[in-house]
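Entry 14. Ran structure prediction on the chain below.
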Amino acid sequence: MPKNTHEMYEIKDGKIERKRPFCSRCGKGYFMADHGNRMACGHCGFTIFKTQEK
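Output, structure tokens:
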């Protein structure tokens, strides 16, 4: 878990929302890091590449 877990959430319209998705392999509590063109899990290394519009 990151030290600043509270930074992974934000409050919108009185509800708590995650800023980043959880890793689909590791499950809840393991956030994906945003690296611009891809999302990666720091725990297991799972990577999802973002599609780019032309």
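The chain has a mean pLDDT of 87. Will compare against last week's run tomorrow.
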